[in-house]
Specification:
Radius of gyration: 19 Å
Order of helices and strands: EHHHEEHEEHEHEHHEEE
Low-confidence stretches: none
Number of helices: 8
Helix content: 25-40%
Mean pLDDT: 98
Bound molecules: iron/sulfur cluster
Largest sheet: 4 strands, mixed
Oligomer: single chain
Amino acid sequence: MREIEVSRITDVIERLCMEANEHLPEDIKCAIKDCREKEDGAIACGILDNIIENFEIADAENVPICQDTGMACIFLEIGQDVHFVGGSLSEAVDEGVRRGYEKGYLRKSVVKDPVLRGNTGDNTPAMLYTEIVPGEQVKITVGPKGFGSENMSAIRMFKPSAGLQGIKDFILETVETAGPNPCPPMVVGVGIGGTFDKAALLAKKALMRPINVPNEDPFYADLEAEMLNKINCLGIGPQGFGGRTTALGLNIETMPTHIAGMPCAINISCHVTRHKTEVI
Ligand code: SF4
């Protein structure tokens, strides 16, 4: 059994909140630059140039890439031989978010009540997802999620008879409906299987996988490539002004489901698809 002080979790999350908001992952930066090469329209090229200049300034000056610094989605993969000491784990996570958003001058975007509103003032509570895995390490991923794109996400409880075509149509319909709202070029996370809630979590987790790493299952890797191509044929383009680049990547995560269903969730993200991971 390995003991870990929860204050270590706080320290790592504090730092990752800032780093994730200031530095885009390399796979996203490369994809944006590749797309810029493929565009020939003046408006699309100009927008992608602005996006590239923006993330380069954020990198150089350690400032947020976007004004919407998101809700702090925190994924903890906890080794089953870890024993946390020194206080509450969930309070330690919130403290890390509180400190990171304060120290990094990141916008606090969380309200106390979904209907009555009222800013919590410190971007807490974090959206915390925990998973127990073998071993004695803890993998911490911070993925700040903006809501221009989160709002365009969708879930549907398909009957199995809808088949693969039903899922393909749903993906295209969701992206088309999203249009310019999620600040394209977007990243599309798809979760298929499980229950209503698990499908949504799979879709969110799909956004944490680098977009240059295909699904390990060749069937789903092919589906990812096919749907990315189809999305980019929609012509929505950078920021919705038309062009070849509507999505930078599309990741699919799946799990077993009930014989009577085929849940499918689509979590839309923007060109600022941020996440940062550390293992302790
Ligand atoms: S959708 Fe993304 S790029 Fe657009 S405002 Fe929100 S976080 Fe920023």
